[in-house]
Amino acid sequence: MILRESDFTEYLNNDPNIKSKVKAVNSRLSKARLVERQFEASLDSIVADDNLMFQTLCRIKKEMNDTNGNISNAVRKYYLFLNGKEFPPLSQWRG
Known about the structure:
The chain is mainly alpha-helical. It is built from five helices and no strands. It has a domain at 22-86. Helices cover 64% and strands 0% of the residues. Helix 1 packs antiparallel against helix 2 (21-39).
């Protein structure tokens, strides 16, 4: 897949909201790779299309049993990394 791993790692390492850098960064990278494998799509293509992003977040919730939101949060972080803005909560999505 196409995940821009080194750039994303640097982005996460520079995020002041992430406290335990190594563990938190590795966890997000692992979850991002998991989504790419699960849906056989690159995160770059997913986050480039807001409708696809919404559909993917819904599928993560349903198909990956993401009860604590960690997998979705990794994808949302990647969206923020590439688009420079946060993706709205699913309940507020107006696609």
